[in-house]
Amino acid sequence: MKLQIGGFLDNSLVNGDGMRSVLFVSGCIHNCESCQNQLMQSFDYGDSVLVGDILKKIVKNVPIIKGVTFSGGEPFESALALSKLSEGIRKQGLNIWCYSGYTYDEIINSEDKDKLGLLKFIDVLIDGKFHEELRTDASKYTGSSNQRIIDVQKSISENKIVLWE
Ligand code: SF4
């Protein structure tokens, strides 16, 4: 199985908690005003890479990294392949953060089994479209104040949105 990838960072401190590898997945339908990653809205941008080869790049960064962040683009448009990758990431004992233009509610209420399947692998979801009029510097992980940093596993088990702390 392959993923269309717009970029990969071995080590980053600004895309989630602790040192992380970051995967930028191509393709997005949200069309946010002032999108910072317009090139990655295209589903053809970047390279088509085997999931196993991406995992090898991530594993090379263990034990420096604490986890992996999926960004984009819209990771949930590539949910099936990312679920496959997430299985391997979990086996390394790494946590998974994910940025999405979808809200948590849209994903959890979706009838798309692939999107729901991916959500179950995510530890922290930063959700919602970027809104220029709500742009904020208040949080180092979100771009606009509508976006939330959600503890996905607690939210699923408690059946309500629990914010990450
Ligand atoms: S979700 Fe992200 S990549 Fe997609 S249009 Fe919005 S800012 Fe751009």
Automatic annotation (TrEMBL):
Pfam families named among the record's database cross-references: Fer4_12
Cofactor(s) of this protein: [4Fe-4S] cluster
Annotated keywords: 4Fe-4S, Iron, Iron-sulfur, Metal-binding, Oxidoreductase, S-adenosyl-L-methionine
UniProt-listed Enzyme Commission number(s): 1.97.1.-
Gene3D superfamilies assigned: Aldolase class I
InterPro entries cross-referenced by the UniProt entry: Aldolase_TIM (IPR013785), NrdG (IPR012837), Organic_radical-activating (IPR034457), Radical_activat_CS (IPR001989), rSAM (IPR007197)
GO molecular function terms noted in the UniProt entry: 4 iron, 4 sulfur cluster binding; [formate-C-acetyltransferase]-activating enzyme activity; metal ion binding; ribonucleoside-diphosphate reductase activity, thioredoxin disulfide as acceptor
Catalyzed reactions per annotation: glycyl-[protein] + reduced [flavodoxin] + S-adenosyl-L-methionine = glycin-2-yl radical-[protein] + semiquinone [flavodoxin] + 5'-deoxyadenosine + L-methionine + H(+)
The keyword Iron is annotated on this UniProt entry: yes
Its biological purpose: Activation of anaerobic ribonucleoside-triphosphate reductase under anaerobic conditions by generation of an organic free radical, using S-adenosylmethionine and reduced flavodoxin as cosubstrates to produce 5'-deoxy-adenosine.
Protein family per UniProt: Belongs to the organic radical-activating enzymes family.
PANTHER family reported for this sequence: ANAEROBIC RIBONUCLEOSIDE-TRIPHOSPHATE REDUCTASE-ACTIVATING PROTEIN, PYRUVATE FORMATE-LYASE-ACTIVATING ENZYME
Name of the protein: Anaerobic ribonucleoside-triphosphate reductase-activating protein
Species this chain originates from: Clostridium tagluense
Gene name of the encoded protein: nrdG
